[in-house]
Amino acid sequence: MEVQGKNILGFSNGEGAVKTFRTYNPKRNEENHFVIEEATEEMAYESVRKAHLAWEAYRFMPISRRAEFLRKIAESFRAERVYLEQIFCLESGLSEKRAAAELDRTCFQLEHFAKAIEQNQRLLPSESDSDEACFLNKRFLSLGPVVVFGASNFPFAYSTMGGDSASALAAGCPVIVKGHEMHAGTGDLVAQLVNRAAKETKMPDGVFSNLNAKGHWLGAFLVKHELVKAVGFTGSIPGGMALYQIAQNRKEPIPFFAEMGSVNPIVVLPQKLKDEKEQLVTLIRDSMTLDAGQFCTNPGLVIGLASSEWDYLVHEMSAAVKAIAPQVMVHPDLYEKYYGGLERNVLLLQEKGVNVELPEKTGIAEPFMVELSAETFVSSQVLAEEVFGLHTLFVRCKDEAQLLEVLNNLAGQLTCSVFASDSELKQYRSVFEWGMSHAGRMVLNGVPTGVTVDRDMHHGGPFPASSDSRFTAVGSDAIARFLRPICFQGFSEKQLKELIS
Ligand code: NAP
Asked: Which residue(s) pair with 413 in the sheet?
């Protein structure tokens, strides 16, 4: 198998492309050899038309067939993993180890969703053949074609066949992916394999499409299309919000599920720090610096109370961070954004009298950490924004009140982590209360990175972490985003079975 670079419209390829582009190898600092064709409006239109037609058949297909399709996709990824992982590494600069782990996660996720729909009573036909009319019977039906946007930093797990696509297919919705231009080759291979699995399991043509474009027109076009009924987005806050506005301003507004950025505060309480300072240094350092900090759950902020232990933490972290080699980011554009964020914050901090230097601009990301007072942190809202990459602020507070002031300066978060001893759980209840009202996941004595695929996972959070804090992008509950409830009144189980078997 090889990268064909075509736009994939169900079982056929888009013909008549006018423009092409290439993806980039950030490690070798050169363009990759394969050419990617840019979709045309006609292709985008055709993919939506096909998805709509496919939906007519796919939505009422027995759940067991949908589950078989999801498992077949996972099987086809495993069978072609060598080449998939090779292109993943070429386009992202991420390690082979990371490619393998992300592919395993992607396959596991597909199988997890397959199992979840097979066990969901509200999706399955009833086992009863009763002729007796039920007064009320609530079921869940798929919304219709879903458009998916993936993030650059997860070419497998949050992209072409990541959590959004897998959960939409599990819900009974055909998917049209607006491929990420930074890993269009990986997306192309994934899409070819999804359609191979679709053919092998006799899914309708159009159940899955993958379109490419450099620039924003294609995403906007798809979100506006009247036959598109929902959107799954993973990416930056500006990108998510631009598309969210489009979805809400349509004649028929549609559900738009955006998982966006976060600074993921870690609060380090004094007793816990005293008891386990060495372990905390290792844990936090590894979480901050893994894969150049390119995780939506990367900790951008560590907050604690002034003490000799806090000074130790900052000193050790600073030494540990200096010892870490600079790392390539997934794309030069992301490095530019990272460096731009650093530059902005360093200038701001220097103006406020913080002794900090801007690292040299080398094209390879150097880890950046600086300690500042709570007063300095709260004096500018800009410091509370995500700088995607190896950027972490350590904020020193005088007391609990100031700690809360720092927290209250933050918007909604994907996660809030607290390192606390048993007694501090009660003593600093206000910190946990803050987390419960501002974060989608609270971590006790652990770091935010590492998002387990599980029914109990919640990956979302109050705005701007996500556009709807009631829903998760990870774990089987993610399927609920693409279903709508319907109440059947007066139908017998037998009649219902005939309608929605
Ligand atoms: P991004 O720049 O927002 O891109 C994501 C997708 O949205 C791309 O396909 C992009 O298309 C499209 N897009 C962006 N702005 C658009 C606009 N104005 N109009 C139409 N389409 C637009 O995100 P990224 O840099 O790839 O990913 C890194 C970000 O994702 C970080 O902020 C990270 O925290 C976040 N993230 C969040 C999660 C989560 O689950 N919460 C997971 C991973 C990453 P183009 O390619 O044309 O720009």
From this structure: 439
